[in-house]
Write a structure and sequence with these properties.
alpha/beta, 6-stranded mixed sheet, 5-stranded parallel sheet, binds pyridoxal-5'-phosphate
């Protein structure tokens, strides 16, 4: 299986090349040449398999230049009891009959990014080995909070790699920030950017396209790559859990093979929901993909109107990992639903770049609308949903997952089909503890408490355990305190790598 660029101006590459390169040289994203279909009767067979077996099987369709042994080594190295605190890796919990929460946050950093970032470094180093690549790979990451930490954990001390993470200085939660600035490892660097996530992401994209930096790095036997969800190696592992959720519903006798379900995803960069789209195209009977946004509802508007317009106020919300106005992975969806029309996609992306806005043609919009539903939740609605989830079902939702639950309620209210639904739960409630505490603890209880005291209070109040990756964070020493403007990001990269700009 080869990979094409969504902008159509590079020759097809292999899976290992796509993963090593991260982003295509023409500025596009790599996509598989076709989406494999699962055999019709695979469900029964797959019900007997562990998460790891399902992952190896599904990923082998796409990693055609990997051997089965290589894929299995990547999978078992990533998804094991040392790294995940739940034996099922991505367990389904029934919230109430017919509505299931898929907990994707049992990895080391307590957010769903671990599902991909625990395996990506393995896929990447295996790919490099295959290509005879002996440069050191420099991973550049722009993070809205969770990717950064998950990437640092995934790449720390991995041979022949270094990782540099840029996070928006005032755009991440206290826990997220503390997780990153205390990161240990001999190949890790972290810097705060004066700006929001879009500024950090645009800055990183510019560095990728900067020929001077590429040359300077090459002179030092280094090469850049990406751990953001623009890398195909990030998306692929995410397809696995949607397929696995469907199989789990069969195993639990909640559905029969062939029954349709809905999937609800709290969305930012459009990576997670795009993986669900790929699962659907592979043959998982998914009727609607429900795209849930917070007040940064650019995607809600796009799916409902066909107009993508980032010219709007950037809202800081209590679900910061979804505070995004440029959803990079939408480009892959556009490529798929236009049957690989790279000219159209290039034009729209050009318009987005120059005017901050584009409108897709009616046929494309119709296709998207036939699959996707979209709505958004305000912070107030999100807090009310967390409270309801706890009071009524004794289930503690994080802010992002609560956005999805709220949007799912709206979907039903607007006549959406009452079929089994899987809601992707993207973070542990303790990762966004102060907002969650606001929803379920009284003002008197919270008065004068800092973020970490609130976590302990939340834990005693609910009887739930603080995940290992978050407990004790405030005592860890701060190892990274660099701050940069967006203009200075290229210089910061060179400085961190100890490279002089000639
Ligand atoms: C990254 C993230 C999201 C958004 O996922 P995308 O793939 O960017 O759409 C949602 N919730 C949490 C907790 C996240 O970390």
């Amino acid at each position: 299986m080869n990979y094409f660029s969504t902008r159509g101006r590079v020759e097809p590459v292999s899976a290992s090349q796509a993963i090593t390169m991260g982003i295509a040289p023409d500025g596009g994203l790599f996509v598989p040449q076709n989406i494999p279909r699962l055999p019709e009767n695979i469900w029964q067979e797959m019900s007997e398999w562990s998460y790891q077996q399902r992952a190896s099987y599904l990923m082998s369709f796409y990693l055609s230049d990997f051997t089965r042994e290589e894929i299995e080594a990547c999978v078992t190295g990533a998804y094991n009891a040392e790294r995940f605190d739940h034996s099922e890796i991505a367990p389904l919990v029934e919230l109430y009959p017919g509505v299931f929460i898929q907990e994707l946050w049992h990895g080391p950093t307590a957010a769903f990014k671990d599902m991909a970032l625990q395996i990506l470094p393995r896929l990447l180093t295996t790919s490099m080995g295959k290509l005879g690549e002996n440069s050191e790979i420099v991973i550049l990451v722009a993070t809205s909070g969770d990717t950064g930490k998950a990437a640092l954990e995934g790449f720390r001390d991995v041979n022949n790699t270094r990782i540099i993470v840029f996070y928006p200085r005032d755009g991440v939660s206290e826990v997220q920030k503390q997780q990153m600035i205390t990161q240990s490892g001999n190949n890790v660097y972290v810097a705060a950017v004066e700006g929001n996530f879009d500024d950090a992401q645009s800055g990183v994209k510019k560095i990728f396209a900067d020929e001077n930096i590429q040359q300077l790095l090459a002179d030092h036997n280094m090469k850049m790559s990406s751990a953001n969800s623009i890398n195909w190696g990030r998306l692929l592992p995410q397809i696995v859990y949607y397929v696995s959720a469907y199989v789990d519903l069969i195993v639990d006798n909640r559905i029969r093979p062939g029954d349709e379900i809905n999937i609800v995803v709290p969305t930012g960069n459009f990576g997670n929901i795009l993986a669900a789209y790929y699962a659907r195209e592979m043959g998982v009977p998914i009727r609607n993909l429900i795209c849930a946004s917070n007040a940064n509802n650019v995607l809600t508007d796009f799916i409902n109107t066909g107009i993508y317009d980032r010219n709007r106020y950037f809202e800081k919300t209590i679900s910061p990992s979804m505070d995004i106005l440029i959803s990079s992975n939408l480009e892959r969806l556009l490529y798929e639903v236009t049957s690989h029309d790279d000219r159209k996609v290039s034009e729209w992306m050009e318009e987005l770049q120059t005017e901050g806005r584009y409108q897709v043609d009616p046929a494309t919009h119709q296709k998207i609308k036939s699959l996707f539903r979209a709505d958004f939740a305000t912070d107030e609605e999100t807090l009310a949903t967390i409270k309801l989830g706890w009071d009524k079902y004794r289930y503690l939702l994080d802010t992002h997952t609560a956005v999805a639950c709220n949007v799912y309620q709206k979907f039903l209210k607007h006549g959406g089909a009452q079929i089994p639904a899987v809601i992707a739960s993207t973070a542990s409630p303790f990762k966004f503890g102060s907002s969650v505490a606001k929803a379920v603890l009284s003002p008197e209880m919270r008065a004068g408490k800092d973020e970490f005291s609130l976590l302990r209070l939340l834990s005693t109040g609910t009887g739930l355990k603080i995940p290992a990756g978050i407990a004790g964070l405030e005592q860890r020493p701060v190892l990274h305190n660099k701050v940069t403007t967006t203009e200075n990001m290229p210089a910061t990269v060179l400085n961190l790598l100890n490279i002089k700009n000639k």
